[in-house]
Design goal:
The protein is of the alpha+beta class and 142 residues long. Helix content is 38%, strand content 12%. The chain contains five helices and five strands; from the N terminus they run αβαβαβββαα. The longest helix is centred in the middle third of the chain and has 18 residues. The mean pLDDT is 85.
Length: 142
């Protein structure tokens, strides 16, 4: 199952670039609010079970408010879905930890939150640092 999650995580995503696109994405997600969504705060332990429909709806409202308050831009551009009309996997980047989430990077930052229909894995553990960084670390501590 973890291979499925990592494959989906590394798959193709489209940004909800404008705020009205984010509104449409949330509307599409709410239509699919059937108790089959995992809500994963990256850095915390991955959830073992899906989120109740009430908690999921509350999360969507709260994350929308947080994004609009803390990402003070005319555009959104920090929420990505595998499909904007019928999403099954959504990455939400933390406005206070963007790094190079936009554009191309060999080592983009991890999202702050991931919504998925697949049981999540511990992303910081599963996505190891590049070999160069591991070699640097090993030189110091081994």
């Amino acid at each position: 199952m973890s291979d499925d999650y990592l494959s989906a995580f590394k798959g193709s995503f489209t940004s909800a670039l404008r705020w009205h696109q984010l509104d449409a994405l949330w509307q599409a997600v709410r239509k699919q609010n059937d108790g089959e969504w995992f809500v994963y705060a990256v850095g915390e332990a991955p959830p073992a079970s899906t989120t109740s429909t009430d908690k999921f709806d509350r999360f969507l409202s709260e994350i929308d408010q947080l994004l609009r308050e803390e990402h003070d831009e005319e555009y959104c551009g920090i929420v990505y879905a595998d499909n904007l009309q019928t999403p099954a996997f959504i990455k939400i980047y933390d406005p206070n930890n963007l790094g190079v989430s936009c554009g191309f990077s060999d080592n983009p930052p991890l999202p702050g939150w991931v919504l998925s229909r697949i049981s999540p894995v511990d992303l910081p553990q599963a996505i190891q640092p590049p070999n160069k960084r591991r070699r640097w670390w090993q030189k110091i501590f081994h």
